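INPUT
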Amino acid sequence: MSQEVSVRIDGELCAATEGQTIFEVARANGRYIPALCHMEGLSSAGTCRLCLVEVAGIGRLLPACTTPVHTGMSVTTDSENLAHHRLMALELLFVERNHICAVCVSNGHCELQALAQTLGLTHVRFPYNYPRLPVDTSHPRFVLDQNRCILCSRCVRVCDEIEGAHVWDIAARGINSLLVSDLDRPWGESENCTSCGKCVQACPTGALVEKGHAVEEMTKRNTVVAQLAAKRETHP
Amino acid sequence: MKKARLATMWLDGCSGCHMSVLDIDEAILVVAQRADIVYGPLVDAQEFPHDVDVAIVEGAVSSQDDLEKIKRVRERSRILVALGDCAITSNVPSMRNRLPVKTILERLYIEGADVQKGVPTDGVPALLKHAIPLQDVVKVDLHVPGCPPSASSILFVLTELLDGRIPDLRTKVHFG
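OUTPUT
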């Protein structure tokens, strides 16, 4: 039997279960915390830094999606300081690679683009990086465009945790990090890939897409992962 | 009441943002009652004038000429508006930023040419290393993203500016 804990979220006393994250408890209690790397049905990775929250008594911001709640914890999910840091995290995602919404197949259906609007980002204050990055078109059905990847690792997790194939990994470190398939072989040559397309559906941007779509045409079924995970719970 | 002095500038963009300005349709008559368009691709003036109240700039800063123009616009205008993704993110013009300028020009004008092979230098401004957003080189007072920004957001911006307010566009507009 899991232990009940009670935490304060924005002053309100909330009941939770031990092991739940701040993110889960906050969402269950109707709080909005922005996130890009979080996806219902998958484990949490804490890569996007958009769900940062303030926890009383802790001198730094913590990602809500990887911080478990405990009794007596007091969390702030919305403040000027948090808005400042979240906006900065979002801006850094935009400058890191080449996100050119106007010519992207996911234009209008992209979580990064939508979050920029939600958080009120009208311009980026930092210089753009303009990296030269590869596009892998070797798979017969799908494309990996590194220019649009935000390294959220949802594809890595869905392939490992739901499909059980573990095709994807993040190689290298820091600014050089790159999504790779089958330990850095072209996607089309991957022996582990089952071509199920879950990574495409899980990808929040136009980094992983189906072939054959023009600008604005790539829509994704972003609830499919949560549905599959829920069915696993019912039929383990 | 004294009319406001409105100017528009077209740098490295496709003119789609200017088309979107025209898409405000008959509302341009209302704007024209309250402002004189003193410079831009839609009017005859040759020189960017002094004492401009609102300058609306489309496009990224891609060449030496763009750089000089945007600095002049900044010096001579009270409010500078970056209109559209090219002016704000450098957008499509930035897709060349991954390649050295020399490589691009040689590919186009030497490898890609059938006749008169050679990179033109006469009467054309030198390209900068990168196509960059306006805010990298001048202070921008208002950013209106979109590719292009919708006619309704442009009209809202113009109306607000002519009423003496800098509009808060957060959550009203988006990239792309």
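end of record. The first helix of chain A runs from residue 22 to 28.
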